[in-house]
C-alpha cells in the first residue's frame, strides 16, 4: 500500500510521516531536502535556479514512486510528484520566476513521467493557514527557509486548495491542522489515526 502526506511548507508533513511510519510499521519515504544541491541557491536567486530545482525534485520523486511500487511494501511518502507540477512549478511560472519556455519543457517531462506512475492509495492533505505555517517554519529554524515570504506561502496555499478541490487521482483525506498539536497531544494524534483508520478500512 502507498500512502502519501501532502501540504504546504511547514504544515507538518515530515513529522506526521515519521509518526505514522512508527505507528503502523510502514516504511517512510522522505523528501530529499538535506542533500538537494539546488535548494540554498534557489532561495538566494529563485529565477536563476527554479528550473534546475524543479527538474531535480521531479526526478527524485519519480525515482521514489518507482521504488515504492517495486518494493511491494507498505510505504508512507512525504509529498507527491503531483505537487511539483501543480503547485511549485506552476506558482513559479505565475510569479515569472520560471520562464514560459522552461515551464512548458518541465510540463512535457512531468506528463511523460505521470503516465508511468500510479497515484497513492490514500492521499492525506494537511490543511493549514499561513500563520500556522509561519510558526512551524520558524520553530524548525532551517536557515534556507528564513527568507520565505508570507506572500509566497499564501500563493502556495491557494494552489494547494485549488489542486485538492480538483483531485481525482484516488482517495483523499483532508485534515485541518491549525488547531491540532499531534506532536505534543496524544489525543490529537489519536484523532488523526481514527480518521486514517476509517479510510484504510475501505482500502482492504
Automatic annotation (TrEMBL):
One of its GO terms (molecular function) is kinase activity. It comes from the Bacteria. Residues 3-197 form the Deoxynucleoside kinase domain. InterPro entries: DCK/DGK (IPR002624), Deoxyribonucleoside_kinase (IPR050566), DNK_dom (IPR031314), P-loop_NTPase (IPR027417). CDD domains: dNK (cd01673). It holds the Pfam family dNK. Keywords: Kinase, Transferase. This is Deoxyadenosine/deoxycytidine kinase. It comes from Epilithonimonas pallida. The lineage of its organism: Bacteria, Pseudomonadati, Bacteroidota, Flavobacteriia, Flavobacteriales.
